[in-house]
Amino acid sequence: MGRRPRAGVVLAAVVALAAAVVPAASAHEGRAAPKAPATAVLDGARLQRTKIRLDHGDAGLRHAVAGLTARADGWLDQGPWTVVDKPKPAPGGDVHDYLSQAPYWWPSQPPTADNPWGCPYVQRDGQRNPEVDTGTDRQDVEKVFDSSYDLALAWYYTGRKQYARKAADVLRTWFLAPDTRMNPNLDHGQFIPCRYDGRAIGIIDFSQSYTSVLDAVAILDTGAPGWSGTDRTAMRAWNTDFRDWLLNSPFGTEEGAAANNHGTFYDMQLAALAYATGDRDLARRTVLAARSKRIDPQIAADGTQPQELARTRSWHYSTFDLVAYTRLAAIGRHVGVDLWAYRGPDGQSLFKAVGQLLPAATGAAPWPYPELEFHRFAASDVVHAAADAGDRAARAAVPKLEAPPGGDLWALRPAAEQLDSIAG
User: Fold this and answer.
1) Which of 65, 108, 117, 395 lies at a 20 to 30 A Cα distance from 344?
2) 7 pLDDT band (50/70/90 cuts)?
3) Mean pLDDT on 216-222
4) How far apart are CA 138 and CA 144, in angstroms?
């Protein structure tokens, strides 16, 4: 296969052609030609090219844009949310500390006046205790993650100012405003009543989705109305403090040592934060280390992920772990590391891991491992990622994938998301 032209050369040609054919008048609401955002996971240059195609009336993107704007419209009359609104503060009493409850732990006794929680709590893997969705910050922060990402992307592609202003309001309220901001730590994530005030594995509350916030901020930084230079500076400071907490806190150290999806997501989050805050060396070291630290022990020679197959929701967790891997590979692209090209000592690779999902993802064969709630569409994004990285089997599988609820938005935000919910 011949070498592709350098991305900068191709992009310059595309932008020049766009300017020659349709000058700035094609921009929505008076916007100039789109800038390429300095995104951590998404490819900013690819977003820019997609935007130019949209401005030139690319009919193939219209359906995806309609799906994205429908999601963005749904957020306009919701929120903003704040960490200080929970009924009870986190242990320690600071309402600005994030609090969430362990999802798979349940009371073993009926609540009484002397034992209001029904302690002791016992674990039921894969079975979500509905208590976790009341009284803590978990549901609200997921809305912050999802809304800011959808709204920022919708603004970028359509130029509609209300999307940018809403995204800015959501982010300022949760992270920046003195009265409502969250402290940049996860000291009280996934607490267990009467047992632990917080646990290292609570970091995954953020690591599974916070990289979308980093990319939303990068998109808004290209000149979004309602998002100021002061906001940008303050958000970078918050992210720097959070990055340092991940690196230096006991919980961060413990989560970084995890041997399953928790460790993979930790690396992804740390690498993205490092890149977004200007520490490219830390980002590169983190992606490079994932080869021997993650892929070698976590992916078997046949591509299976033994730690994830041991779960009661093995399909969910197999796709879940690969969301982290494929997003980590996307960050690697920015710092000169090709994680897709890596082969472990027994032939382990990300391509093999995605290949294990293809029969079930395309409907060609049932998933042969335990799964309490199988959703075929859960694998769609990681298959897209492997196809984009050059895997022929994944490319052949793409037309056979099941679209997730709300439609396939890969063309507009080509980075894997966890498409099925663990809350089901």
Assistant:
1) 395
2) very low
3) 98
4) 10
Distance CA 42, CA 57 (A): 23
Residue at token pair 């492997």: 386
Q: How confident is the model at residue 24 (pLDDT cuts 50, 70, 90)?
A: very low
Phi and psi at residue 106, in whole multiples of 5°? -130, 150
Q: Which residue has the higher pLDDT, 19 or 374?
A: 374
Tell me 122's DSSP state. Answer: E
Cβ atoms 154, 69 nearer than 8 A:
yes
b/e sequence 249-269, b meaning 16+ C-beta within 10 Å: bebbeebbebebbbbbbbbbb
Residue type, 214: L
The C-alpha atoms of residue 325 and residue 294 are separated, in whole angstroms, by 9
Percent composition of the chain: helix, strand, coil (DSSP 3-state, to 5): 55, 5, 40
Cα→Cα distances 107→131, 214, 289, 322, Å: 10, 36, 40, 32
Beta carbons of 259 and 297 less than 8 angstroms apart: yes
The span from the CA of 44 to the CA of 308, in Å, is 32
Q: Name the β-bridge partners of 121.
A: 107
d(CA 175, CA 170): 9
> Tokens 């959501």 belong to which residue?
170
**Strands 105-107 vs 121-123: parallel, antiparallel or unpaired:** antiparallel
Whether residue 45 contacts residue 223, with contact meaning beta carbons closer than 8 Å, is answered with no
What is the C-alpha separation between 203 and 291, in angstroms, rounded?
A: 22
Which residue(s) pair with 123 in the sheet?
A: 105
**Residue 201 φ/ψ, nearest 5 degrees:** -70, -10
231-236-238-240 Cα dihedral, nearest 10 degrees: -170
Phi/psi at 196 (nearest 5 deg)? -135, 135
Picking from 268, 261, 154, the residue whose alpha carbon sits closest to that of residue 211 is 268
CA proximity to 149, closest of 392, 246, 8, 157: 157
Q: Which residues contact 130 (CB under 8 A, 6 or more apart)?
A: none
3-state class (DSSP) for residue 131 = helix
Mapped onto helix, strand or coil, the DSSP state of residue 56 is coil
107 - beta bridge partners?
121
Q: How confident is the model at residue 116 (pLDDT cuts 50, 70, 90)?
A: confident
Q: Give me the residues paired with residue 106 across strands.
A: 122
Does 234 score more than 50 pLDDT? yes
DSSP-assigned beta bridge partners for residue 371? 313
* CA atoms within a 13 Å half-sphere pointing along the CA-CB vector of 235: 23
Structure tokens at 123: 């674990």
